Amino acid sequence: MATEISSSRFSTGSLILPPGSLILPPGGASRTPLPTHILIPISLIKMFDADFHGIRSLPKNVVPLTSYVLPHYSKTFLARLCEQAERYDEMVTYMKEVAKLGGELTVDERNLLSVAYKNVVGTRRASWRIISSIEQKEESKGSDKHVSTIKEYRNKIETELEKVCQDVLDVLDDFLIPNAATGESKVFYHKMKGDYHRYLAEFASGEKRKGAATAAHDAYKTELTPTHPIRLGLALNFSVFYYEILNSPDRACHLAKQAFDDAIAELDSLSEESYRDSTLIMQLLRDNLTLWTSSDSAEGEPAGAADAPKKEEGETAKPAEPAAAEEPAPAAAS
């Protein structure tokens, strides 16, 4: 009899069926989707299926229970708990450990890792924007004493931001990108890499800013089908990079419009499962185009309004000023 995974007493002669796996009873009369991970001893399968010839004959969604799977499952489960409890720093820790176990992450695990880092860095970026806005207001008042204190606190936030960004970049370079087997995952990770270099460029100056901007530009240069949600998200974030970091509104608008037009041309080829995600990002591309073109043409606009910070995927705090849209964070399965 199959049992739920709730004990540490497992043998390597067992299998894990992930959620959504199908149980096909003898004769193949019906299929029942699993609501949770199920542990099934191989010996039990052999009792009911005379044609079972070992691990290689199993469907792809049936995973052998090994020393890799157990800690992998445990840490992913803990990361989901952290997400529900909104303890994102701990969520990052668990997903880093999953990445360091090696192998290709599933789409769900990939999204968990992305959500974790986006929330950790997002709160600090929102804090940095608010503090920077307050600093500018105090400078305009000539309040040197307050400015000095605020600047010191801003530097503290920047140190935290730099640490988080460098952490995710190290995980990407050392584990995730080398282990990426599919084109989709490679694009996803390079997009992440571009995003976090861009975040570094937001508050860096001089050569550091130039280096981060160059690294972001290089990481964003990847390819997928025009309607793929990851490619559209890449184009969305890359266009924001041109607008915010390189101060190139013309190139930003050109990239966003090109991505939107290319996707429109192939909209009929969209699969049902990616239609919602793709059309959502296409709408964000169009929203940014509308915002940027109206900002360029507006007269008598307050200084700095056109350069208002953009909303980032997974941002948890409200920015100090109105923001253009950017790709939403991927939803991790619960």
UniProtKB/TrEMBL annotation:
**Superkingdom per UniProt:** Eukaryota
- Transmembrane residues, as ranges? none
Residue numbers spanned by region Disordered: 293-334
Boundaries of every 14-3-3 domain copy: 72-306
Q: Which Gene3D superfamilies match?
A: 14-3-3 domain
PROSITE patterns from the xrefs?
A: 1433_1 (PS00796)
State where composition is biased (Basic and acidic residues).
308-318
Assigned protein family:
Belongs to the 14-3-3 family.
**What protein does this entry describe?**
Tyrosine 3-monooxygenase tryptophan 5-monooxygenase
InterPro entries named in the record: 14-3-3, 14-3-3_CS, 14-3-3_dom_sf, 14-3-3_domain
**Bias-annotated ranges (Low complexity):** 294-307, 319-334
Q: Which SUPFAM superfamilies match?
A: 14-3-3 protein
